[in-house]
Amino acid sequence: MYKLFYILMINKKIILGILIIGLLSGCVQSTAFLGPIYTLGSTGNAFQAGLSYGSSKTVTSITGKTPAENIKDILQPKDEDSDLRKLVKKQIKETRKKLNLSK
Question: How do the domains of the chain map onto residue ranges?
Fold first, then answer.
């Protein structure tokens, strides 16, 4: 009898978990509010929470990507970076030479 009760409880938890996931899957779009809501709850500053949400929405509307996607794109190595690095290194070497001559 105890084993049957235990099996029924596990099945209830699994079924309940599947139902909750199914019901809450429509709430994915509102997760953009989680950051500002957390900020409001932790700091109590409504202005900061509103600024956080507003800046996120503005970046998304201008670029078409979320701030996290923009950061991911910036951090991806690109072929153009090597040319830029060469140019910067060249400028640094020239500046160092000029600074050593002035002494």
Answer: 30-64
